[in-house]
């Protein structure tokens, strides 16, 4: 039976992506593995696997595990401009061989990469941080623009607040636009829909759930954090181009060395091992965040979180996080509709 309210949050994006609710799981590197993507997809959201710089073997294993856990459509997230070209080529070839239906890309737009996967019939979602990048992504063939604001956790490409950027992009495109950055509640979802956006993308809110592959320490730091505890810094820059900014929970590293944007040069930072994932060393100042499998000095690693962290007070199953968000957004929209109706002459 169709519940009238069940359909009230649906936007054309839901039909395009094949999901029930216009809520996307951000393709968080390390964190958005099959278990989380399946949980979000099975709960009616849209699952995106975070596969930045992962090997084709891991991508194949994650896609197989995801497909075993859900028959919902999904995307694979890659960051073309921050991936060595040979590896990127192999990642994309692997995804196309596997029949991955959609890609989510981030950072600088690489038009030839977009064109390659479009030729193979895939959908392309492109996350951008500026109006200009949105224009380039659309020209390259993207089907969905994700407007990332400066409130976002993880790597942050632009400096505009998410809703301002999304509003500006909406004025120049007919493509579906998704708001990303700082959204952890139904209020944010309702506000995005009221703006005319087609949905939201959430990272931090899903990182702090049972199924995410983040280390429990990272999840608990998000639960304890207020939105004011996050900083935009470029101190976690080893393995990335100079100047790449990330939003993290302030910790001993940002406190001592760069709790702000200072133009740190990756070549001038020392290489000191502070943790391990299996036999893989994790360096101080690197972009790696602590995962389930990480041991060592977790406090000194990049504890990515967006400014919505203050609204996160527990670590529920991802389905419960999504259901709460959707229920709250519905209540807000229904109450706004009642007020509008009451205002009629
Ligand atoms: C732990 C973490 C890892 C991330 N890794 C990626 C990534 O690999 N690729 C990507 O496109 N975005 C990545 N992001 C950024 C997200 O796509 C998104 O912009 C962000 O999570 C939205 O802000 P929010 O965390 O406040 O919801 C990451 C974010 C977090 C929190």
Automatic annotation (TrEMBL):
The keyword Oxidoreductase applies. CDD domains: NPD_like (cd04730). InterPro entries: Aldolase_TIM, NMO. Keywords: Flavoprotein, FMN, Oxidoreductase. This is Nitronate monooxygenase. It comes from Sinisalibacter aestuarii. The lineage of its organism: Bacteria, Pseudomonadati, Pseudomonadota, Alphaproteobacteria, Rhodobacterales.
